[in-house]
Specification:
7-stranded mixed β-sheet; about 35% helix; about 20% strand
């Protein structure tokens, strides 16, 4: 449908809605009544430049704020159609608009007075990453913006005059200043769109050039602090070793030089505090696009990459870890291994296999967060503890086969064992944050030491046929379930969800720990995982689908129906799309 046709439909639709002056009249009629009278404001209201949806009204001024939504045709905003034609630019545009509206809301937040959350105006607080969010979507030529508002009251008595101020003064100004092209910093928006298109081209070039990661010269990798993702001022800009430097041509920045890490096994070494982990952390963050000024805008990584680590105490269910662990003293079957309390080595072995199941073609490993006995056994230990007495096949003995037979590359930070030098295709030395390739020099040294085994026998990837058990409805109907006649609310909203930052989320009374999923970048992704898991339990998990089929169903549903498929009666602000790999990881950590 062309833009003129869409505008016509919007006009006809708006004529059937209650006008904004009716909302103003309603507010005057409920002024000074009990707070529940605010429920009458729920619904659709026609304003001059947009339609306002009041999707959910909070129960009292101290409860979670009300959920509101604004919709209008993109053509009415004046935003260039070319900016939302392709996925990469559309996501960047949505991100840009959220950031602009957030700045506007800061000027009016709590300017309307009252008790509790009265006067709150908020939308998603975006970090350094550019993520698809429920806060702003462009769907079929329509701009949808979701946000929160605290409906004002004194005590628990409605203060309608203050809400009228929010809805008829503050909000229209914020919408006008942040969503209409004529009022935006058009050059800044253009740069954001161009950057997204360059990043998309870089991801395409990775595959064409046989690379798993690219780190541009001049990139600022260190972060401001352990609790801030802002770039560290005064840090040493990254410069590629000459032997690994690649020149890539992008649509807008034209030629960009930087370090290309080829497929295979790459080792990052160096002294403590010289930048090894900083480089790896930048690479692991490169699965996402970053905003202008982040310093890592052109640090781009294979978007299936998974950071592996030990996770003592995590649950593992029916995972075939026999590639790494066999012949346990208690005779436990490691081809369908289950434990509620995994060790460091067992959890890391499970993480490798689960990540293969999730489709990863690049593993990122930091020795500091790995189980030592899972990673390597030196030659002396191999002499003292004979192979027949050791159930663990260390990662070092599988890493070559993972690449050569399964196409899975590895980038690893190591500092404790020289054995890793023997299995690496490329070796990077970090010295005071300067990178140097030392592969040829180290390979010459390796020729003098070949007295221990570096490759285990019988490499074979497991078949991935794990089936999730069917979700069982609790007795008494408390959980609604998928039974006949279950309505939309019972299907989607009976299982209460709550996220705790990047640490965990809860589904009813069960807590799912995601703190070690280091590539989760935003707490809104954690909340989205909770919604996805709830959907999987109630709509997908039937006792027949495999884990892979379940995740595919989730992601296909999102692609076709968006957030509406997962949210129930209304889509809230505050959801950000996680990667497929984190959806797999979430299912794997669910104990229920």
């Amino acid at each position: 449908m062309d833009q003129e046709g869409l505008l016509y439909i919007w006009k006809k639709r708006g004529e059937k809605m209650r006008a904004s002056n009716e909302l103003r009249t309603l507010l005057k009629s409920i002024d000074h009544k009990g707070y529940p009278a605010y429920k009458d404001t729920a619904g659709e209201w026609r304003f001059p430049n947009y339609i306002l949806f009041i999707d959910h009204v909070q129960g009292d001024p101290f409860a979670s704020p009300s959920s509101l939504r604004v919709q209008l045709p993109c053509q009415a905003t004046g935003l260039p159609e070319v900016y939302y034609r392709e996925d990469c630019s559309r996501i960047a545009l949505q991100d840009f608009l959220v950031r602009q509206l957030s700045k506007q809301f800061e000027q009016y937040n709590f300017k309307a007075k009252g008790s509790g959350k009265s006067g709150l105006l908020s939308i998603s607080h975006c970090g350094q990453e550019v993520l698809p969010r429920s806060a702003c979507e462009i769907v079929n030529g329509t701009l949808i913006v979701r946000f929160y508002t605290g409906f004002p009251a004194f005590g628990r008595t409605i203060n309608a005059g203050e809400l009228e101020k929010i809805l008829f003064e503050f909000l229209p100004r914020c919408i006008e200043n942040s969503l209409f092209y004529k009022n935006l910093d058009q050059k800044k928006l253009e740069r954001a769109i161009f950057l997204a298109e360059d990043q998309a081209e870089l991801r395409k070039l990775l595959k064409e050039e046989g690379l798993v990661a690219f780190v541009a010269n001049g990139a600022v990798l260190p972060r401001k602090s352990g609790v801030s993702e802002l770039p560290l001022s005064g840090s040493v800009p990254f410069v590629s070793p000459a032997s690994m430097e690649r020149t890539l041509v992008l649509p807008h920045r034209k030629e960009v030089k930087g370090m290309g890490i080829p497929r295979g096994v790459t080792l990052i070494v160096g002294g403590g505090y010289h930048g090894k982990s900083t480089l790896l952390e930048a690479i692991q963050a490169g699965v996402y696009n970053h905003i202008e000024g982040d310093g890592r805008e052109l640090v781009i990584t294979d978007d299936s990459a998974v950071k592996l680590r030990a996770e003592d105490g995590r649950s593992v269910r029916n995972v075939n870890i026999s590639l790494f662990i066999n012949d346990l003293p208690d005779k436990k079957d490691t081809t369908v291994f289950t434990t509620a309390d995994a060790s460091g080595s067992t959890s890391q072995a499970a993480g490798v296999v689960e990540s293969i199941e999730a489709g990863s073609s690049l593993f990122l490993i930091d020795e500091d967060t790995s189980a030592t006995n899972f990673m390597v056994r030196d030659e002396f230990m191999q002499q003292v503890i004979v192979r027949e007495k050791e159930p663990i096949t260390p990662y070092i003995e599988r890493v070559r086969d993972l690449y050569e037979k399964a196409g899975i590359s590895t980038i690893m930070v190591a500092g404790s064992s020289g054995a890793f030098f023997h299995i690496a295709d490329h070796i990077l030395l970090m010295d005071c944050y300067h990178a140097e390739e030392i592969t040829e020099h180290v390979k010459e040294l390796c020729k003098e030491r070949t007295d221990f085994q570096l490759r285990a026998h019988k490499f074979a990837l497991p078949e991935f046929k794990r089936v999730l058990p069917a979700y069982k409805r609790a007795e008494g109907g408390r959980h609604g379930g998928r039974g006949h006649g279950a309505d939309k609310t019972s299907r989607y909203e009976h299982m209460k969800v709550k996220a705790s930052g990047l640490e965990s989320f809860s589904l009813d009374k069960e807590n799912i720990n995601v703190r070690y999923l280091e590539q989760l970048a935003d707490s809104e992704q954690t909340m989205a995982l909770a919604y996805f898991l709830r959907y999987a339990l109630e709509q997908v998990q039937d006792g027949r689908r495999t884990v892979q089929e379940t995740v595919k169903q989730i992601m296909d549903t999102f692609d076709k129906k968006g957030w509406d498929a997962f949210a129930g009666s209304y889509v809230p602000c505050g959801l950000a799309l996680p990667r497929v790999q984190e959806v797999f990881a979430c299912l794997n950590r669910f104990r229920g």
